[in-house]
Amino acid sequence: MSVAAAPPPALAETAPRRRTQRSFTGLFFTAPFLAVFAFVFVTPVLYALYLSFFRDRLVGGRSFVGVENYVQVFGDAKFWEGAGRVGLFLAVQVPVMLALALVAALAIDSARLYGTGFFRIAIFLPYAVPGVVAVLMWGFMYGDRFGLAGNINDLLGSQVLAPLTPQWILVAIGNIVTWQFVGYNMLIFYSSLKTIPSELYEAAAIDGAGPLRIVRAIKIPALRGAIVIATIFSIIGSMQLFNEPNILRTIVPNVISTFYTPNMYAYNLSFVGQQVTYAATVAIVMGVITGVIAYVVQLRGQREATR
Amino acid sequence: MDARTHRRPRAVLAAVALVATLGLTACSGGDDGGSGGGGGGDASADAVDAALEKGGEITYWTWTPSAEAQVAAFEDAYPNVKVKLVDTAAAADHNLRLQNAITAGSGAPDVAQLEYQSLPQFVLPGSLVDLTEYGFADLEDKYTASTWGSVTIQDGIWGLPQDSGPMALFYNKRVFDENGITVPTTWDEYVEAGRKLHAADPTKYITNDAGGDAGFGTSMIWQAGGRPFQVDGETVTIDLQDEGAQRWADTWNTLVQEELVSEISGWSDEWFAALADGSIASLPIGAWMPGVLESGAAGGSGDWAVAPMPTYDGGEAVTAENGGSAQVVLEQSKNKALAAGFLRWLNSSQDSIDVFLESGGFPATVADLESDDFLNQESEYFGGQQINKVLVDAANSVGKGWQYLPWQAYANSIYSDTVGQSYLNRADINDGLKAWQEQNVTYGQEQGYTVEEG
């Protein structure tokens, strides 16, 4: 770890004196960030990477196993089941959530909505509810014996609503996440819309563009960067799905397995199964997969922007 | 989902994902902590007495309701000692926190409560102090054979028993009487009673079992004569399809598949409500239940009664332990002699045990189990029944030779992934048990054990 932090000595000697001073000043200003960055970011990653080459056993203790853990992850049905599940979640939930957030942002930006401030705060409010509380609250509403779902079923005299069954649980989780994060993403979009200079709108109005045309020709293109950012945040969030299923699991332990998402799998391996090193491997593989997907989205976003 | 709140330079975005995932595991790494070596000074019963006299401060983690009163009584008796009490609320989280503190190498308490089934998991990696050196072997005669057996593993004494949980059939007498149901003495009669009750009143169930509770499943297999886990040093034999396991699974299949058991999870608010109003009409459960019923389901007062566990053949009474825990001293403790002194007082002095009994606990000490006061006590909650007579009989008829896995906590955590799926799909529980066995065999082998399948 110290190796990575040390400056390359050869470069320091050959560089001219003035330049050295300048880079020292830069370093001085970034030092607080770099120190924290190294401590809470680089070190844990390197440590996890180091751990992933070992195996802990109750009998025999820790031993070096090379890439054996990685080989095991690639053949691990539990891991891939979880990874596939968050992949499906990502493919469905993220577009739905971002579309809703986009519509909401355009609506409050349209200046045609009465009580804009109220709508903005109302849509954003779920984000201010602590995640655990939100899931517990939804868990109660989802209950088909005691909750809102049960009441609606009683009212209709049928069993149409069953959010806590294997068929619907992922949708139920998606609903919670969407409810929580639409407001947050809406704010990203809204703040981006606010930066559009009003001259553009004036010009568009002079050219005779209607509201829909303005949305298509001015607002959406201006939002492109914000959409890419929001998408990447959402992808990372989806890949790390943990709180919602882990808390709902306490209500329906049979419906949500201990490896329901890769993060839950890593958590249970590490804290219940004492397989810290294998959990580190799972985390690294999942981190790389997330990074690749996020990077592809970012590249695509940039290409679109330059086109 | 915290990552969505982060705002970082783009280049870092991908790495954010990586580190947030890693943070989860990295903090649990670290050394196994120091091992060997005493807490300073020579270790003996005299050293314990000296440490108690000298005093100091220790930390105690527990979820026992009477702990606060016990600690207060202890501090009165030994004014030089200060005990910092931490209420860890429930066994599962407690184990997790304890395991993390041990792995981290600091932050573990001096004395902690552990369920009997979790002991091997902490004994084998050397996280606990062998209390033999503090003269604890002299205390053996105080405890029932089954609880003493639970704390002595591999020729060491790793804790002192706090309580025990021999299973009995707790039933709602009012509901049974109203529906003309007699107390079942065999499991066939129990199934029949379940059918009759649910047919007479569809809102009522003979019992609840959501299928996620491994502690219940293993105890029921134990009661049915199954001995699926055998541990001999580093060799573990697993047979979750032995005669007893199948006998239980076959009986329970009928109850689950005919939807005669309620799917309410144990220990939920809903569970306590259902126990209070009688919609869950009976529970085969450990002898510590009276205190839980009194505090959690006060509305059921006067309705409940206790009977011996039904048997499979209608013959001699046999039961199993369900839960129950011991207190242990941790290797991480800086003052082991003092910790041992507190533990000795906590679970073997009459002053402490009296406080424990007052809170409705079920003791592990022979003298208390046999005392007339205890046996003749009439419980108001149970309509004046002398429940301790039934429960002490149960304590004396616990089936012998049961062992837990050295990784029981992990095994229990994947119970719902395997056996739970049988419940969910109303499929054969035997298939779930086979899947559970398979995953445990794999895990055991990965952990370096020689695992044999029976």
Automatic annotation (TrEMBL), chain A:
What keywords were assigned to this record? Cell membrane, Membrane, Sugar transport, Transmembrane, Transmembrane helix, Transport
Can you say where in the cell this protein is located? Answer: Cell membrane
Q: Which organism is it from?
A: Cellulomonas iranensis
Q: Which family does it belong to?
A: Belongs to the binding-protein-dependent transport system permease family.
Q: Which residues are in coiled coils?
A: none
Membrane-spanning parts: 27-50, 86-106, 118-141, 168-190, 222-242, 276-297
Task: State if Acetylation is listed as a keyword.
Answer: no
Its membrane topology is listed as: Multi-pass membrane protein
Where is this protein primarily located?
membrane
Q: In the UniProt record, does the keyword Transmembrane occur?
A: yes
Please indicate which superkingdom the organism of origin belongs to. Answer: Bacteria
Record-annotated ABC transmembrane type-1 domain positions: 83-297
What is the name listed in the Swiss-Prot or TrEMBL entry for this protein? Multiple sugar transport system permease protein
User: Known Pfam families for this protein?
Assistant: BPD_transp_1 (PF00528)
UniProtKB/TrEMBL annotation, chain B:
The answer to whether keyword Transport applies is: yes
Q: Which UniProt keywords apply?
A: Signal, Sugar transport, Transport
Concerning InterPro entries, the annotation shows: Bact_solute-bd_prot1, SBP
Q: Does the keyword Signal apply?
A: yes
CDD domains for the chain: PBP2_TMBP_like
Indicate the secretion signal residues: 1-28
In its UniProt entry, what is this protein called?
A: Multiple sugar transport system substrate-binding protein
Source organism of the structure = Cellulomonas iranensis
